[in-house]
Amino acid sequence: EVQLVESGGGLVQPGGSLRLSCAASGLTFDNYGIGWFRQAPGKARELVAAITAGVNTYYVDFVKGRFTISRDNARNTMYLQMNSLKSDDTGVYYCAARNTGIVSTKQYDYDYWGQGTLVTVSS
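^ that's the sequence the OP posted. Answer follows.
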Protein backbone atom coordinates (compact mmCIF):
# COMPACT_ATOMS: atom_id res chain seq x y z
CA GLU A 1 0.00 0.00 0.00
CA VAL A 2 1.32 3.39 -1.00
CA GLN A 3 1.28 6.04 1.70
CA LEU A 4 2.33 9.68 1.69
CA VAL A 5 2.36 11.35 5.08
CA GLU A 6 2.86 15.09 5.45
CA SER A 7 4.06 16.83 8.57
CA GLY A 8 5.38 20.19 9.65
CA GLY A 9 2.36 22.42 9.28
CA GLY A 10 1.22 24.84 11.94
CA LEU A 11 0.66 28.45 12.85
CA VAL A 12 3.34 30.96 11.92
CA GLN A 13 3.51 34.73 11.85
CA PRO A 14 3.92 36.62 8.58
CA GLY A 15 7.57 36.65 7.59
CA GLY A 16 8.23 33.39 9.38
CA SER A 17 9.33 30.00 8.09
CA LEU A 18 8.14 26.42 8.11
CA ARG A 19 9.49 23.21 6.65
CA LEU A 20 7.02 20.64 5.46
CA SER A 21 7.98 17.00 5.08
CA CYS A 22 6.37 14.21 3.10
CA ALA A 23 7.36 10.65 3.94
CA ALA A 24 6.58 8.06 1.29
CA SER A 25 6.24 4.30 1.60
CA GLY A 26 5.10 1.48 -0.64
CA LEU A 27 6.60 2.88 -3.83
CA THR A 28 9.95 3.18 -5.58
CA PHE A 29 10.35 6.77 -4.53
CA ASP A 30 13.33 7.49 -6.79
CA ASN A 31 11.24 6.99 -9.91
CA TYR A 32 8.43 9.35 -9.02
CA GLY A 33 7.85 12.97 -9.78
CA ILE A 34 6.66 14.72 -6.63
CA GLY A 35 4.58 17.84 -6.17
CA TRP A 36 3.37 20.05 -3.36
CA PHE A 37 -0.12 21.45 -3.82
CA ARG A 38 -1.95 24.01 -1.77
CA GLN A 39 -5.66 24.53 -1.19
CA ALA A 40 -6.51 27.88 0.30
CA PRO A 41 -9.90 28.41 1.96
CA GLY A 42 -12.59 28.63 -0.70
CA LYS A 43 -10.16 28.09 -3.55
CA ALA A 44 -9.16 25.26 -5.84
CA ARG A 45 -6.13 23.12 -5.16
CA GLU A 46 -3.09 24.39 -7.02
CA LEU A 47 0.49 23.32 -7.57
CA VAL A 48 3.06 25.25 -5.56
CA ALA A 49 6.29 23.40 -6.39
CA ALA A 50 7.41 20.15 -7.92
CA ILE A 51 10.56 18.09 -8.33
CA THR A 52 11.30 15.45 -10.93
CA ALA A 53 13.08 12.15 -10.43
CA GLY A 54 16.03 13.85 -12.05
CA VAL A 55 15.86 16.57 -9.36
CA ASN A 56 14.73 19.33 -11.68
CA THR A 57 12.52 21.76 -9.85
CA TYR A 58 9.49 23.84 -10.77
CA TYR A 59 7.91 26.71 -8.84
CA VAL A 60 4.86 28.82 -9.42
CA ASP A 61 5.63 32.51 -9.65
CA PHE A 62 4.14 33.51 -6.31
CA VAL A 63 6.56 31.29 -4.34
CA LYS A 64 9.74 31.75 -6.37
CA GLY A 65 12.56 32.96 -4.18
CA ARG A 66 10.67 32.04 -0.99
CA PHE A 67 10.01 28.29 -1.21
CA THR A 68 12.49 25.49 -1.87
CA ILE A 69 11.52 21.95 -2.74
CA SER A 70 13.94 19.08 -2.24
CA ARG A 71 13.97 15.33 -1.95
CA ASP A 72 16.04 12.75 -0.07
CA ASN A 73 15.67 9.50 -1.94
CA ALA A 74 17.60 7.58 0.71
CA ARG A 75 14.91 8.54 3.24
CA ASN A 76 11.96 8.38 0.81
CA THR A 77 11.13 11.89 1.90
CA MET A 78 10.60 15.21 0.24
CA TYR A 79 10.56 18.65 1.76
CA LEU A 80 9.16 22.10 1.19
CA GLN A 81 11.08 24.85 2.92
CA MET A 82 8.87 27.92 3.12
CA ASN A 83 10.39 31.28 4.03
CA SER A 84 9.01 34.83 4.15
CA LEU A 85 5.53 33.44 4.60
CA LYS A 86 2.55 35.62 3.82
CA SER A 87 -1.07 35.40 4.88
CA ASP A 88 -1.90 34.33 1.31
CA ASP A 89 0.18 31.19 1.88
CA THR A 90 -2.43 29.93 4.33
CA GLY A 91 -4.01 26.66 3.31
CA VAL A 92 -3.81 22.90 3.42
CA TYR A 93 -0.64 21.62 1.78
CA TYR A 94 -0.67 18.23 0.09
CA CYS A 95 2.18 16.20 -1.32
CA ALA A 96 1.49 14.09 -4.37
CA ALA A 97 3.44 11.48 -6.31
CA ARG A 98 3.29 10.86 -10.02
CA ASN A 99 4.20 7.45 -11.44
CA THR A 100 6.58 8.94 -13.95
CA GLY A 101 9.78 10.79 -13.34
CA ILE A 102 8.37 14.04 -14.61
CA VAL A 103 5.95 16.44 -12.99
CA SER A 104 2.77 18.21 -13.97
CA THR A 105 0.86 21.27 -12.84
CA LYS A 106 -2.41 19.33 -13.00
CA GLN A 107 -3.54 17.48 -9.91
CA TYR A 108 -5.26 14.72 -11.89
CA ASP A 109 -1.87 13.71 -13.30
CA TYR A 110 -0.76 12.55 -9.86
CA ASP A 111 -1.38 9.00 -8.69
CA TYR A 112 -1.00 9.22 -4.92
CA TRP A 113 -1.82 11.89 -2.35
CA GLY A 114 -1.14 12.59 1.27
CA GLN A 115 -3.81 13.64 3.73
CA GLY A 116 -2.62 17.23 3.89
CA THR A 117 -1.13 19.46 6.56
CA LEU A 118 -2.56 22.83 7.55
CA VAL A 119 -0.42 25.95 7.34
CA THR A 120 -1.82 29.10 8.89
CA VAL A 121 0.04 32.38 8.46
CA SER A 122 -1.37 34.95 10.82
CA SER A 123 -0.31 37.46 13.42
